[in-house]
Design goal:
The protein is 44% helix and 17% strand. By secondary structure, the protein is α+β, with helices and mostly antiparallel strands. Strand 17, helix 17 and strand 18 form a beta-alpha-beta unit.
Length: 627
């Protein structure tokens, strides 16, 4: 028994954190568990070795565990260790230190407004992080018209010189350094408090406060102060653009949407403050392919929120892990107030999650397009199909296999392809099936294996998803053929005709809504394969009827058969035609025309019209008049 196996089998049934290590002692993966013995033992099973963490178990030689009292403590510790070690097999959230924060030095007598990328424990108030520093600077320039607080570094120098800077003259600073401005500490603090309310999304509360101050100042006949509050209210209301995306509840809420494409991922947070959408944050994720969607969401929530000091009271996401209660408890401990994790099924919040997911997909596409120098966009039905089927990448290129036969003869297979939901006819292929007998499973397997041989040779591009027309049996036959021919894994599904059920290899059948765009994309591809295969099958049947009628006549080869069909259009057109007319119009010997007429049931040979063996159309016409 190896050291790793021995340690795994000796683990206690207690909550804690486990760390897999390689031969050099480097941490490969950090995980947490409610029961270490049950969770970690699963990594040694045969199924786990063939899953996404198979490479982890191939490199791991040692295990270390840290016991905790509760699962919530284990989650907090896991978040800290992932940020510290950045393990190769953990989904890693990119470091927030590269994102800007708005800093307000509330510990000073006259707080200063600034932008920073480092958060220190210096008593200042930090708001953020934000993803677009240019937008932050633009917003701050506008908001300083409402809250003219200082931004200068050398405040003491201006104060000693009793000389204000340019911002005072253009009304972007009230000038606390200038004696003639006569700005008191309380008045300046009121500006700072209003600025903080605005930056944290509590603008309704801010407007109520400003209106109360304006009315009080007017009642006390302090008209200049009332006018300043009036102007501030007007600027704030102008800045507040009306929105449709609002929540009914007034609690601070973050709406999370994630998108994955291979090993890369993106997460978007829609920030709702006071029931109104006030901003968006985007984070890129590395190694997103290692975990499922629920585990990916858990990793993001733990790494993003457990490293922050201010948390919302509600977090909405499309999928939550099975132990979401422990995650909510850890977030509550971190925030100092209750944090609720919600998974909406329908309604307004479900629509907000869909919007966040579309934003995440767009952010990921933009990042990949810039990296690859392209401008591709995934169609909405392709992104929905990725989510419904839980695929690691959007199925941009899909192929569908269908077979068509009538009895034991003329069995054919059709392969159609689409890119981004649109038919790609240059990749259409059709083939005759060599295997005898009407065996749908064997025919699907033969078609898939022959097609995939061309894919592996580089003749055809590699699809992202394989669809077969049929149920469990067809999917199993296609998987067996792919295992023989393919060198890389590829997702495979079937589409059963009767109930329009998506047949998956794992997880059971999937019933998509009839109005689902992803289901319609699969139906279009399946129906196109059916049409393409039937057309080919009819063509072969017609060709077989022609061949059986003419090729049995001695002396009829491909050239003379072509002459006959050009002259009379079809085999049916030859029926009842006399030998002389057939010889004249098709340019064949009369003796051969007599044999064709007999084979097609045209009656006895015509001896009353003598003609040369190689009669021309003109001489045949003369004979016809003579008769």
């Amino acid at each position: 028994m190896s050291v790793l196996s021995e340690k795994v089998h000796n683990l206690p049934a207690a909550p804690g954190v486990y760390l897999f290590k390689d031969t050099r002692g480097r941490v490969l993966y950090v995980g947490k568990a409610k029961r270490l013995s049950a969770r970690v033992r699963g990594y040694l099973s045969g199924d786990a070795a063939h899953g996404m963490l198979g490479d982890l178990m191939a490199e791991a030689v040692d295990l270390d565990v840290i016991l905790t009292d509760t699962e919530a403590e284990a989650l907090l510790l896991e978040s800290t260790l992932v940020r510290q070690h950045k393990p190769h097999f953990n989904t890693v959230l990119k470091d927030d230190k590269s994102f800007p924060y708005v800093r307000i030095s509330v510990q000073e007598t006259y707080p200063r407004l600034s932008i920073t990328r480092q958060v220190r424990r210096d008593g200042a108030r930090y708001v953020g992080p934000f993803t677009d520093v240019k937008r932050v600077r633009r917003v701050l320039r506008e908001i300083r018209r409402v809250f003219p607080v200082r931004t200068c570094r050398n405040f003491e120098d201006y104060q000693r010189a009793d000389r204000p800077c340019l911002y005072y003259h253009i009304k972007r600073c009230v000038g606390p350094c200038y004696s003639r401005a006569a700005v008191g500490v309380e008045e300046y603090r009121a500006l700072v408090d209003g600025l903080l309310l605005f930056l944290t999304g509590r603008d309704q509360e801010l407007l109520r406060s400003l209106r109360a101050e304006m009315e009080a100042a007017a009642a006390e006949r302090r008209y200049e102060a009332a006018a300043r509050r009036r102007d501030q209210i007007a600027l704030l209301e102008k800045a507040r653009s009306p929105q449709k995306m609002v929540a009914r509840r007034g609690r601070d809420t973050d709406v999370l949407g994630v998108s994955r494409h291979g090993s890369r991922g993106a997460a978007v947070l829609l920030l709702l403050r006071g029931g109104r959408l006030v901003g968006k944050e985007t984070r890129m994720l590395d190694r997103a392919h290692i975990e499922g969607e629920a585990e990916l969401i858990e990793s993001f929530l733990a790494q993003h929120y457990l490293a922050r000091t201010t948390l919302p009271r509600r977090i909405i996401a499309a999928g939550l892990p099975a132990d979401a209660g422990a995650l909510a408890e850890a977030l509550t401990q971190r925030a100092g107030h209750g944090v609720e994790l919600v998974r909406p099924v329908r309604g307004r919040e479900a629509r907000l999650v869909a919007i966040a997911e579309r934003n995440a997909a767009l952010a990921l596409e933009d990042a990949e397009a810039r990296a690859e120098g392209r401008r591709a966009r995934f169609a909405p039905e392709i992104l929905e199909l990725q989510k419904r089927l839980d695929l690691p990448t959007p199925p941009y290129r899909m192929v569908c296999f269908d077979v068509s036969n009538l009895g034991a003869d003329q069995a054919v297979a059709a392969v159609v392809a689409s890119e981004n939901g649109r038919a790609l006819k240059r990749l259409y292929r059709r083939m005759r099936i060599h295997r005898p007998g009407p065996d749908d499973f064997a025919m699907i397997a033969e078609a898939v294996e022959r097609y995939w041989t061309r894919v592996e040779s580089g003749e055809l591009p590699r699809p992202d998803l394989v669809l077969v027309d049929g149920g469990v049996g067809q999917v199993g036959a296609a998987r067996a053929a792919l295992d023989r021919a393919s060198t890389r894994p590829v997702p495979l599904i079937g589409l059963a005709k009767r109930e329009e059920t998506v047949v998956r290899e794992r997880g059971g059948p999937l019933r998509l809504p009839r109005s689902s765009p992803s289901l319609r994309a699969l139906q279009r591809l399946r129906d196109e394969a059916h049409r393409f295969g039937l057309d080919y099958h009819r063509k072969l049947r017609n060709r077989a009827r022609v061949t059986s009628a003419l090729d049995g006549v001695g002396g009829i080869g491909p050239a003379r058969r072509a002459r006959l069909l050009r002259a009379f259009g079809s085999v049916a057109g030859l029926g009842g035609v006399g030998a002389a007319e057939m010889a004249a119009r098709a340019g064949i010997p009369l003796s051969l025309a007599e044999r064709v007429a007999q084979a097609l049931g045209g009656g006895a040979p015509e001896t009353a019209a003598p003609a040369a063996p190689d009669a021309t159309p003109e001489s045949t016409g003369h004979d016809r008049k003579a008769s």
